[in-house]
């Protein structure tokens, strides 16, 4: 990572690791039942942006569960925004001088066409130990877990010292407008636990936990438009300045370009630890070599050839859409393409735009950053000892002896809005899955219900430790 945004190993504003709090005994059977019930309620609500968006109904389902458990109406706020909404609920701590702990998630989901699914995506179904439905893994089940844990803690008589804020955005999968608004409102938080990030892997054969990762950083999502314009003319009189040909030349250069490899303390730790669990010996060797020397050309070639690792070694930019021309018998007056970039932390939007322009090397080509307010560059969160101690303890209770290591997400989440404002945010979901069960955003999305009791145990420990 670039020095200006280096991952801080020393702890900002934390002088040491506080003694772990005693986790109150919660009624796990009652909480398990509530998790399944609330998960089903949420999955049945079509919380998709556009016509008939019912995200506000999903938020109200959470609010109803909280109210039934003792939250007052004044402690729960649902704020309409365009065709969606967001929720902020507050559980006041005993020491209001302390900055709050924020638990962050979202209740909107990506579109799902019932015609394409084996089961209706908005009809929750339990089969063979799995909960099926849109949002099962991203992330209505996790929302139900976190909500039910807080309810169980309150019912057990727990009183947090630090205020706990539970918030759900309503458009994380699309514009992230509510995500930005929430982060701005909660920018005085001590820490954010993003339950829409991190997680564990089950072994394909045995079903046992293999390892678990938490996310301390993420790459920036950015789109850029390439535009080439010409006067046009009759196709019977071709000229060298053909907008489609010129755009194609630019796209070929960008497609062949490899951004410099980069590494941060967080990604270095990831490759060192993850190499132990990579079954392919060549990939494992490349991971260890890259961790030792990010400039190792042979290791880079191996990692960049693998879809699982290419996004972890630096910035990537790829063409994703192209349009051009206005008639079959006319020279093109205009040709455009979209370049989607996932930018390693520490680089500005303008820096990448200028670099794309230089790589394309086509006179007259216009390169424009078009992501607008849908994305923002954010630094990595510091490696805070209090967070690390709390997650290690919590996961140890839920899944004993499971290896733990940090990671950097290649996608985008609500964490970036907090990190951009200087608030540490950590993706720390306790949910495990097999790689073969990963259908988030895809068909027949599912989650293994054997996660429920360990996840409740984990959240109860994590929340009480960080809210003391």
From TrEMBL:
> Which Pfam families does the protein's record reference?
M20_dimer, Peptidase_M20
> Domain of life of the organism in this record?
Bacteria
Point out the signal peptide segment: 1-21
Kindly state which keywords UniProt assigns to this record, in alphabetical order: Hydrolase, Metal-binding, Protease, Signal, Zinc
Segments forming domain Peptidase M20 dimerisation: 219-362
Annotated family: Belongs to the peptidase M20A family.
Q: Which PANTHER family does the record associate with it?
A: N-FATTY-ACYL-AMINO ACID SYNTHASE/HYDROLASE PM20D1 (PTHR45962), N-FATTY-ACYL-AMINO ACID SYNTHASE_HYDROLASE PM20D1 (PTHR45962:SF1)
Name the record gives this protein? M20/M25/M40 family metallo-hydrolase
Taxonomic lineage is: Bacteria, Pseudomonadati, Pseudomonadota, Alphaproteobacteria, Sphingomonadales
């Amino acid at each position: 990572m670039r020095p200006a945004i280096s991952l801080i190993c020393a702890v900002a504003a934390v002088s040491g690791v506080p003694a772990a709090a005693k986790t109150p005994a919660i009624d796990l059977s009652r909480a398990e039942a509530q998790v399944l019930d609330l998960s089903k309620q949420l999955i049945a609500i079509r919380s998709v942006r556009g016509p008939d968006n019912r995200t506000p109904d999903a938020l109200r389902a959470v609010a109803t569960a909280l109210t039934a458990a003792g939250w007052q109406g004044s402690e729960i706020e649902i704020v309409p925004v365009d065709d969606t909404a967001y929720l902020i609920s507050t559980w006041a701590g005993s020491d209001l001088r302390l900055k709050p702990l924020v638990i962050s998630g979202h209740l909107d989901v990506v579109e799902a066409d019932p015609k394409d699914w084996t089961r209706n995506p908005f009809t929750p179904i339990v089969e063979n130990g799995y909960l099926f439905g849109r949002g099962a893994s991203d992330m209505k089940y996790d929302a139900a877990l976190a909500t039910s844990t807080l309810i169980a803690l309150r019912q057990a008589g727990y009183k947090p010292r630090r205020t706990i804020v539970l918030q759900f955005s309503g458009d994380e999968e699309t514009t992230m407008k509510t995500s930005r608004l929430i982060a701005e409102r909660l920018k005085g938080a001590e820490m954010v636990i993003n339950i829409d990030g991190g997680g564990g892997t089950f072994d394909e054969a045995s079903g046992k936990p293999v390892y678990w990762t938490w996310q301390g950083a993420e790459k920036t999502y950015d789109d850029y438009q390439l535009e080439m314009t010409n006067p046009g003319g009759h196709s019977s009189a071709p000229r060298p300045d053909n907008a489609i040909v010129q755009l194609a030349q630019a796209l070929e250069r960008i497609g062949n370009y490899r951004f410099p490899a980069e590494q941060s303390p967080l990604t270095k730790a990831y490759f060192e630890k993850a190499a132990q669990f990579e079954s392919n010996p060549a990939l494992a060797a490349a991971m260890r070599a890259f961790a030792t020397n990010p400039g190792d050309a042979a290791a880079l070639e191996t990692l960049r050839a693998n879809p699982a690792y290419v996004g972890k070694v630096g910035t990537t930019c790829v063409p994703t859409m192209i349009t051009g021309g206005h008639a079959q018998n006319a020279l093109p007056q205009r040709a455009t393409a979209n370049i989607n970039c996932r930018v390693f932390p520490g680089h500005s939007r303008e820096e990448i735009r200028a670099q794309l322009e230089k790589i394309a090397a086509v006179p007259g080509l216009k390169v424009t950053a078009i992501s607008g307010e849908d994305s923002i560059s954010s630094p990595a969160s510091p490696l805070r000892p209090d967070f690390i101690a709390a997650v290690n303890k919590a996961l140890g209770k839920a899944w004993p002896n499971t290896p733990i290591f940090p990671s950097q997400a290649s996608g985008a989440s609500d964490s970036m809005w907090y990190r951009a404002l200087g608030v540490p945010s950590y993706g720390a979901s306790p949910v495990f899955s097999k790689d073969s069960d990963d259908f988030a955003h895809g068909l027949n999305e599912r989650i293994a219900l054997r996660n429920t009791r360990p996840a409740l145990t984990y959240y109860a420990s994590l929340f009480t430790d960080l809210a003391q």
